[in-house]
Design brief:
2 copies of one chain form a homodimer. With 351 residues, chain A is α/β, with parallel strands linked by helices. Chain A is built from 12 helices and 18 strands. In chain A, strands 3, 5, 6, 9, 10, 17 and 18 form a 7-stranded mixed β-sheet that branches. In chain A, helix 7 (210-219) links the parallel strand 12 and strand 13 (223-225). The longest helix of chain A has 13 residues, at 301-313. Chain A is globular. Chains A, B: It holds the Pfam family ADH_zinc_N. Chains A, B: Belongs to the zinc-containing alcohol dehydrogenase family.
Chain lengths: 351, 351
């Protein structure tokens, strides 16, 4: 089959790789219907993470189960499934407490499993899924002829809408609150949507790109702040009686964006952060003095995926609006370029 | 009158200073019935904070109102009052949202007010209290003949029991949880008490001093861990099915204690911290990977003081048990030494 391999910063290629097969009795093989490029895939693509050797990439996909191991009970061949961006057993203490990203048997796509067998990345034609029962989220009544709008929204349940939801949920967004969102990528936009769904009254989206501002408004943003840094902080404070927002959702992961988020938060408020930290130093004296909480981390997408799937199927939310480009998997390299150059918010790849 | 002045690390003296007077119409003058030495007073005493010039010190006291300015409405001469460790107006947005430590008109004892007039420290015979209505917490039915046990408990409401409560409350301690407490000073012990009052089922106190372990058990600790560092983390994990505690309360403020607290927390758990940070660098990658929240900061004691006063008066809690020494104010220097050398958990000073 074909799958995406990153060789070096700026160098991703679609290559011939071995077909996935059931290795462990808890495995499934899933044929990918759609995958996508994540903002976090851009870290190695831009050289912010090292790429020491060619490796498989991609961690968001939906597809059809093709084969299951002898111990798999909860999914069956032919089913349409969402794969969260981490695989997990569903049974250990962290999984049962809703933190499947800390699963004692789990791991990430494109690496090795705990027995040393390689696991496929998501940007390919098919994937061996370890711990299939714990990992996969079935979607009844949908098959691979699903229309592209619904497909897009289901695909976001594997990561971005769950990650945005995690930011808002862990920050403790409640009805009536004022929420600011730092970051206007797919996760930031999803955080706007989550804040609205959790009842925020005022949602300030920080964005300087018109297309993203439009999606932010569709998702519930009531105010847009284009400024960054000191000016951005001042603008948020001006909108909030000089105090800062009740909750600020940090969806970038740089030191600059984290400090901006903290400085935009009112005394006693909380920053929910989900951007993979790159060079973040938390200003603990500022946090201490103003009683600013920091909540979040790597989103256990699995914990939110069923709830989000149901909201999508009910037409309550349409997180798939973050996709503004669909390309054949063969054009994966152009997909990365489009996101790197901010020509696209998020690119869907179809094998 | 006499009041305590810190001249340099290790050098505190009781000196003759000007008698306090009402300066602003919102002031009160309070005659001190009891004050005490705080763990945070030891930072400058030990040289961890600079002492550039002699300055007044002490920020926990209770006393009798002697005089009030023309605009003071809520306290009157003759009343027994608790003074939280920060003075605050009670009326601005941060005050009204329960974060009086961010008061727009407030400040700390022993410095200057916003008009540049000096404010007395708490370790003296009397104190000019700015923003008296917002700051002082009256205690009805008590006068300066109050017995020393009740006095001790009322005095803790000015700081330590409120600070311990803040750690537990901001960390989100809930009934049934397992809570570990790092730090066995008066604040750490108060955090044990707060965790019990908030319904924690299991409370692990980390302490290597027998007297403190005894108070911890009285306050509700179910387990004691004497080890620190890696071994301390391992011991907490062993008590918690390998996971770590649901909530860990960091009541020291060093980088070492913060990392120990974070490493003792289960995935998805929260560290509540109230120790004034000294050299703390938050390990954001660890926090991100394990979804560890960090909550807390400088405790708005005023927000908790009435509730705590009522619990004390009702005999529901006896936080004054943290005092194991009472000295005349004239012996303030020995009081600091006793706490510095850990001969005393907390020293009460009586003018």
């Amino acid at each position: 089959m074909k799958a995406t391999v990153i060789h070096a910063p700026g160098d991703v290629r679609l290559e011939e790789v071995p077909d996935p097969q059931v290795v462990a009795p808890t495995d499934a093989v899933v044929r990918v219907v759609a995958s996508c490029v994540c903002g976090s895939d851009l870290w190695p693509y831009r050289g912010a993470n090292e790429v020491n050797e060619p490796r498989r990439i991609g961690h968001e996909f939906v597809g059809i189960v093709e084969e299951t191991g002898s111990e798999v009970r909860d999914v069956r061949p032919g089913q349409f499934v969402i794969a969260p961006f981490v695989w997990s057993c569903g049974d250990c203490l962290p999984c049962r407490s809703g933190f499947q990203t800390s699963c004692e048997r789990g791991g990430g796509w494109g690496g090795d499993d705990r027995e040393g067998h390689p696991v496929d990345g998501g940007q390919g034609e098919a994937v061996r899924v370890p711990q299939a029962d714990g990992t996969l989220v079935p979607v009844d009544g949908v098959d691979d002829s699903v229309d592209e709008r619904l497909l897009a929204s289901l695909l976001t349940c594997s990561d971005v809408v769950a990650t945005g939801w995690h930011a808002a949920s862990r920050a403790g967004v409640e009805p009536g609150m004022t929420v600011a969102v730092v970051g206007d990528g797919a996760v930031g936009l999803s955080a706007v949507l989550a804040a609205r769904e959790l009842g925020a009254e005022r949602i300030i989206a920080m964005s300087r790109y018109e297309a993203r501002q439009g999606v932010a408004r569709e998702f519930g943003a009531t105010d847009i702040v284009e400024a960054r840094g000191d000016e951005g902080v001042a603008a948020v404070r001006e909108l909030t009686a000089g105090q800062g927002a009740d909750r600020v959702l940090e969806c970038v992961g740089t030191g600059e964006s984290m400090v901006q988020a903290l400085r935009s938060t009112r005394p006693g408020g909380t920053v929910g952060y989900v951007g993979v930290p790159h060079g973040v130093e938390l200003p603990v004296e500022l946090m201490f003095r103003r009683n600013l909480n920091v909540a979040g981390g790597v989103a256990p997408a699995r914990a939110y995926a069923e709830m989000l799937r149901d909201k999508v199927l009910a037409g309550q939310i349409e997180p798939g609006r973050v996709f503004d480009a669909v390309m054949p998997l063969a054009d994966v390299s152009e997909g990365y370029r489009a996101m790197d150059e901010r020509r696209a918010i998020k690119v869907m790849l179809r094998p």
